[in-house]
Amino acid sequence: MFGGRILAMSNRDDFTQKTKDELAKRVAWLCSNPNCRRATIGAKTGSEGAIITGIAAHITAAAPGGPRYDSALRPDQRKNTTNGIWLCSNC
Ligand SMILES: [Zn+2]
Q1: Is residue 9 part of a domain?
Q2: What domain range includes position 53?
Q3: Chain-wide mean pLDDT for the chain?
Q4: Separation of 62 CA from ligand 1 center, angstroms?
Q5: Which residues 6+ apart lie within 8 Å of 30 measured at CB?
Q6: Is residue 4 predicted with pLDDT exceeding 70?
Q7: Ligand 1: distance of its center to the CA of 27 in Å?
């Protein structure tokens, strides 16, 4: 869904780590796609710690030219949890 494209950081209204954590916790670390609902956190194999496979996706894009970009939003609205959805890496 991201196409691996890297844009200049100054151009993007990225979520803070706190917002990403909040988005994940609000859906119990499950993919928000109703047809998927895959767990996005689990134990790392062969080592300590956890691995997170989920992604905090923007509903309207973080940067101009991105999917569904809405120029009417202020940067703080664009990085708010209301503009985010927690998905697994497949979705
Ligand atoms: Zn999914």
Answers
A1: no
A2: 17-88
A3: 91
A4: 20
A5: 37, 38, 39, 40, 86
A6: no
A7: 12
Tens of pLDDT, residues 8-42: 456 899 999 999 999 999 999 999 999 999 999 99
Distance 89 CA to ligand 1 centre (A): 7
- How far is Cα 59 from Cα 68, in angstroms, rounded to an integer? 7
Residue 63 inside a domain? The answer is yes
Q: Residue 82 has what pLDDT? A: 97
Identify the pLDDT of residue 48.
87
Q: Which residues contact 69 (CB under 8 A, 6 or more apart)?
A: 60, 61, 63
Q: What total number of domains does the chain contain?
A: 1
Give the distance (Å) from ligand 1 centre to CA of residue 29.
11
The answer to whether the CB of 83 falls within 8 A of the CB of 60 is: yes
